[in-house]
Structures are given as structure tokens and as C-alpha cells.
Specification:
It contains no helices and 8 strands. The chain is an all-beta fold. The protein has one domain: Macroglobulin (MG2) domain (Immunoglobulin-like).
């Protein structure tokens, strides 16, 4: 696991804590319960161990799947948008 999301319940932003910044770009895709891509993000992370994904306040409340990719590493996690 190359990243953690703190916390896994979000309102308007997500913070990704990376275990190996600077190796490759981080690609993130947020998918709703119907399987539709709601947002995507690609960022170079050079010196910081965390990345904040802002601008998620207009998404509807519910359960999402966060797919992360960094180089050859991939992971998926379930996250929840609340009030």
C-alpha cells in the first residue's frame, strides 16, 4: 500500500498520505456507486508526503471508490462523502 486516505469520510476534500513521494506521478480516480467516473486527478509529488484533493464539495453524498495508481502500484479503497 503506497497511500492512505485520511480520513476515509470526506466533505469537500481528500488528503492522500503517500509512502513514496517523488517516484512517479500519482493518478487518482473517484468513481460513484453506479460505476461512473466523477473526478480524476494526476499530480507529480516531489517532496511532500501528502497531497490534498480539493473541490469535491459539489459531489452528491454517498459511497465512492477511490482508485489510485503510482507507477506499477495500484490500489482501490471505499470512501464515503458525508454532510
Amino acid at each position: 500500500m503506497f497511500a492512505k486516505v485520511k480520513p476515509q469520510v470526506f466533505i469537500d476534500s481528500l488528503t492522500l498520505e503517500l509512502s513514496s513521494p517523488g517516484e512517479n506521478a500519482v493518478k487518482a480516480v473517484l468513481i460513484d456507486e453506479k460505476g461512473s467516473v466523477c473526478r480524476s486527478l494526476e499530480s507529480e509529488v516531489t517532496s511532500h508526503c501528502s497531497l490534498t484533493w480539493n473541490g469535491l464539495n459539489d459531489l452528491p453524498y454517498g459511497v465512492y471508490t477511490l482508485e489510485l495508481q503510482q507507477g506499477n502500484d495500484e490500489m482501490k479503497m471505499r470512501i464515503i462523502k458525508r454532510i
